[in-house]
Amino acid sequence: MTSAPGGAVPTFRGAVRPAELGPTLIHEHVFVGDPELDLNHPHPEWDPAEAVEGAVAALTRLHELGIRTVVDLTVLGLGRDVARIARVAERVPVHLVAATGYYTSNVLPPFFRTHGPGRLVGGPDPLVEYFVRDIEDGIAGTGIRAGMIKVVTDEEGITEDVARVLAAAAEAHLRTGVTVTTHSRPALRNGLQQLAFLRARGVPPERIVIGHSGDTEDLAYLRRLMDEGATAGMDRFGMEHVLPDDRRVATVLALLRLGYSDRMVLSHDAACFSRMTPPSWRAVHAPHWHYESISRRILPMLTAGGASEDDIRQMMTANPARLLAPATPVAGAETGVDRADAAIRRHHGGSS
Ligand SMILES: [Zn+2]
């Protein structure tokens, strides 16, 4: 079974041909939360019904600005609730794409301690099963299939649990052909480590997006990622509390002049609601951090700085379409359990 019929891209409302995705924001969030916290200590700014209405309005405005597809990289660890997003998706004109993966920079929940090869309860690694099932069968019984695999490494480095997530993502890629995208910490240049880890497990660099690359102005680092074949996610426009947009734009322009238009994607990493940085905080500290910044502010800044229409089309439309179109799985003939075991053996063998 491949990830979508005929190399199509799975969206909340069914498969879409890559050529029909149009201008795409490839790294966004709709709702970021924590179901256990919400159950026990609800956030005063989180009203689910109101949030759905807000997301419908925001994504409808985005379509009016020319955006046609939004990838929601809210995975496990960030409070993914695909059924809620489906209620938004059925009312908005943009395509929404779901993701699988696990967001942790250090440890997994205790369940994963006891489940998996060589562990107390044993069985195959549930991470591999979850990622592949999300891609092939759909998420949580909704039939909505994941179109990207998201992983994280940050200040803690590739801890044992983070290595487990990365290895499972690589395995899921090999079995489905779906692109792997990351949360990286460019100040540590750790995209290179992510790339090396995933490549060592068989993921082609062309199927890897190193996310948050736009947080740095280190051109040598960014060029190295892209020269190795990865795509740099210039995906935090509006996060001016990390790096001002004029400097993010200057970095993209410098790389365009060097010929890297086919290796960059643009997005905001924004959200309609995030419990981590709630709306009241964003309103004060990050007023440009929302879905509309690229269309309204960033693309005009890029154009004024010398980016061509082709450059914009390449970064906003062609690159996302190429990355979201599933590649041919390379491990279709093997059983997932065997390969998952092999991945874990390789890890315990100390290769990284
Ligand atoms: Zn994100």
TrEMBL record:
Species whose genome carries this gene: Pseudonocardia kunmingensis
PROSITE patterns given in the database record: PHOSPHOTRIESTERASE_1, PHOSPHOTRIESTERASE_2
Residues the record lists as N6-carboxylysine modifications: 150
Pfam family, one: PTE
Residues annotated for Zn(2+) 2 binding in this entry: 150, 183, 212
UniProt keyword Protease present: no
Gene Ontology MF: a single term: hydrolase activity, acting on ester bonds
Keywords for the protein's UniProt record, in alphabetical order: Hydrolase, Metal-binding
Identification of the protein by name: Phosphotriesterase-related protein
